[in-house]
Specification:
The protein is an all-alpha fold. It is built from 2 helices and no strands.
Length: 21
């Protein structure tokens, strides 16, 4: 699973790591 550009801008690296362990 990946995140959208908006989610990345809001959550940053932690958002990526949480969804892509």
């Amino acid at each position: 699973m990946w995140i959208t550009k908006q989610e990345y801008d809001e959550g940053g690296k932690t958002q990526v790591e949480r969804k892509c362990p």
